Amino acid sequence: MQDAAPAKPVPDIKLFHDVFNASPIGIVVENMEGQPLFVNPAFCSFLGFSEEELRNKHCVDFSPREDAEKDWALFQQLRVGVIDRYQLEKRYFRRDSSLVWGCLSISRLNSRPSPLVLAMVEDITDKKKAEETRFRHATVIESSDDAIASATLDGTIVSWNTGAQKMYEYTAAEAIGKPITMLVPPDLPDEENKILETLKAGDRIEHFETVRVTKTRKRINVSLTISPIKDSIGRITGVSGIARDITARKLAEEALRVSEERLRLAQQVARIGTFDWNIRTAVNTWTPELEAIYGLPPGGFGGTQTAWENLLHPDDLAEVLQWVDEALKTGRPMTGEWRVVWPDRSVHWIAGRWQVLRSESGEPLRMVGVNLDITERKLAEQALADMTRKLIEAQEQERARIGRELHDDINQRLAMLAVELEHLESDPSEVQSRARELRRHMAEVSNDVQALSHELHSSKLEYLGAVAGIKSWCKEFSERQQIEVDFRSDVYSVLPREIGLTLFRVLQEALHNAVKHSGVKHVEVQLREESGEIHAIVSDLGRGFDLHSALQAKGLGLTSMRERVRLVNGKIAIHSEPIAGTTIHVRIPLEPEHKSIRAVG
After folding, report:
1. Fewer beta carbons within 10 Å, N or C terminal of the chain?
2. Do domains 270-371 and 463-601 have the same CATH topology?
């Protein structure tokens, strides 16, 4: 009797169900239309949806369009039997709309009357992120202008980027496998061994400045940063380094050193003082010549920025510190003039020029500069200013005298002549018509003389105040010249006579120039008070002019405006270009006592 054949094992449906649910890999059973029938917990967790939500989706709904299209194209081949399985890495939408990566493995199940599809999805998001990070790092390394390379612990080169090829002139094929010592100049035989010993000990080398040689034996100055490479358990397996070419910087430093030496020699002859402020250490070093300029004996300077600030005139301190701050922020060369108070309390004038030197990262390192005593020049300028002031005062007195004579004498006599001519109207002869014509002409002359008197000495400026007087004169000027003067004022303080007269004369000159040269029939005049200053702006859109050429010409108009404004401690800016119009902007500071008085009218 033969033994019966062993019975086939009966499938344990519960076992399959437990495996399906316990699998750490996402599993989906789909029909041939791509509709999920069963999904396991791992797939639900992967995407953050419930089982019911996933069963109500189609397989193409899981991924962005471009990924879904690739998947669906392969799925169609699976449906028609061209292939019975495929694998694809693609992105999936999570419930929160974020994207994750999965490795999809699809197989066709033909054991049932109606074929099914088994999809298994492994989460590879971390792997993809690591690949992207490595790709970005590789891109950064290859795009860097710095030379980046790595080597074994015995100094054999194993990687070589494009920056290293450009700097050292060796291609990657020529460099990899060669000893790193081929870059070391013969006069530094032990340097690379010392570097390797430091790295083997686990230490890092930062910003080490040395010399290297290229393929063509050219010497270049470099700054090296080198680190040990460690494996997953912390063992040092190699070294990586970054080299930056600092040859240009070294040449500049040498040129600066030579320049400073030449400057020092020139200073000894010209008695010009220099300083060198080390911003990092806060030490300010002065030459003996500079100490003398500030009235100090040799070695008498305290050596700090604060010690220098204490020597400045209190009224100039804030502005000078603002210049220093601007130099530190912008790096631009700066110039300025200021007063200093000597130990004997005498006041002296200084002219300075300084420059901030920065590191490669842009950090201010040092400020160097020169100072020159310009006291004698300032005294001469002050004497000239006093003389100019007296000259202008004399001009004003003369203008006032001429104005009074024109108005009180000549105009009265002309008026009397007009009265006498009226008597001729009773004579029926030809004289009668002639007399009327003469009277008309005399009236015109009278009006012109009166207008001239206002030009020379505007009484309205005294009786109405500066702002109202200027407004009235602008109206008269507009009518006489047959142009439109758009006058606007936002001044609320009573202006001192000196400031009012300065503004009046500047506006007179500006408007006459506009009539003569601009070719326009509209001029804007604006007076405004702002931040303790009076602003006067005259602008037109006329022909304009070349400012440099105008200042070189023989006329005194622009020069007179500048001198008048300077005498009241004001500033004037003239901007004009051919065919682009002209703008004259005057700024005059108001003393505190004038700011508190409200203007009348």
Report:
1. N
2. no
Asked: is 270-371 a CATH 3.40.120.10 domain? The reply is: no
Please give the span between the terminal C-alpha atoms of the chain, in angstroms, as a whole number: 139
Report the CATH number of the 13-125 domain.
Answer: 3.30.450.20
Q: How many helices (H) and strands (E) does the chain have?
A: 21, 20
For tokens 């004497």, name the residue. Answer: 383
Cβ neighbours of residue 162 closer than 8 Å, sequence gap 6 or more: 142, 143, 144
Q: Which of these, 562, 557, 492, 565, lies nearest to 527 by C-alpha position? A: 492
**Phi, psi dihedral angles at 567 (to 5 degrees):** -70, -20
Report yes or no: 458 and 473 within 8 Å, Cβ to Cβ: yes
Domain 463-601 has CATH 3.90.420.10: no
The tens digit of pLDDT for each residue in 535-567 reads 999 999 988 888 777 766 655 577 778 888 988
pLDDT, tens digit, 9 for 90 and up, residues 484-539? 999 999 998 889 988 988 999 899 889 988 888 888 899 999 999 998 999 999 99
Tell me which DSSP letter residue 112 carries.
S
Which residues, 6 or more positions from 145, have their beta carbon under 8 angstroms from its beta carbon?
A: 163, 166
Q: Which helix (H) or strand (E) holds 92?
A: strand 85-93
CA dist 493 and 487 (Å) reads: 18
Q: Name the CATH superfamily housing domain 144-245.
A: PAS domain (3.30.450.20)
Residue 84: what residue type? D
Provide the residue ranges of all domains of the chain, joining segments of one domain with +: 13-125, 144-245, 270-371, 374-457, 463-601
Q: Decide: 292 and 389 in contact? Cβ < 8 Å.
A: no
* R_g of the chain, CA atoms, integer Å: 46
Strand ranges, E, within 231-361: 236-245, 273-278, 283-286, 334-341, 347-358
pTM flag (> 0.70): no
